[in-house]
Amino acid sequence: MSNNLSHAELLKRPGNRIGFGTIATFVIAALFFVSLFAIGFTPERMLEVPGGVAEVLSFFWPADMAYGWERVLPAIIESIQIAWIGTIIAAILSLPLALFGARTLFPRLARVVKLISATARAFPEILLAIYFVPIVGLGAFAGALAIGISSVGMLTKLGAEVVDSLDFGTVEAVEAAGGSRILALRWAVLPAVLPEIIAHWLFRFELNIRASAVLGVVGAGGVGGVLLNTLRYRHFDKAAAVLILTILVVLAIDTVSGEIRRKIIRG
Fold first, then answer.
1. Band of pLDDT at residue 9, cut at 50, 70 and 90
2. pTM of the predicted protein model
3. Averaged pLDDT for residues 58-78
4. Could you say which DSSP state residue 19 is in?
5. What are the angstrom distances between the C-alpha of 173 and each of 99, 186, 187, 190?
6. Which of 143, 144, 164 has its CA nearest to residue 92?
7. What CATH number is given for 64-266 in this structure?
8. Domain locations in the chain as residue ranges
9. Does the structure show a pLDDT above 70 at 181?
């Protein structure tokens, strides 16, 4: 047997090949370091961060919690209402889109739905709020519309993935008995996928509460406007109350929503 191996044969050996993972790791690392320098990162600036954080926190303490109870709680409630209405809008719109976006059920239509979903996900809530404020005016309604439209994309994508994971045999059984594809959706698909889809709705509601807290900055209602005013007039103690109460409310809602989601999924 000849010991002279060609270059192609050497490359075929596992130990001599540069795999895709190695190349991807190198590219990701290179992009990371290039991005660091592009944003002006230096080790010296990073070392200054802890001291700067401590100095800023000293401005916020002690918090004026009396202001928080009087002014912040109503604004937080409004943020929750914005998130809830936006989530309901998204749930109503995304459910049929998720069904028609399933490749196993409607392969041709799924491409169109996928494009709609990707387009909706491309716009952050705050940009949509800037767009809706001149149309419907300042206030919570603009925020709810922004939250709703932005959430449709994510919920449609997640819902379609849930439907695609379903055993297609149940649909075929309904159709074999003489039922239409729509009847199969109603009696075979929806009962199987709805619990997981509702869990996705609740998770999106948690995310929407965080998003709605920012929309007040552009006049779309919620606690963001209150926070902006306290910072604008350098009332840092009041701003601290806004942040503390917002964090507490968000954590409480996350806990309750997470427990509800677990119970829904378990059945």
1. low
2. 0.76
3. 76
4. -
5. 18, 13, 11, 15
6. 144
7. 1.10.3720.10
8. 7-56, 64-266
9. no
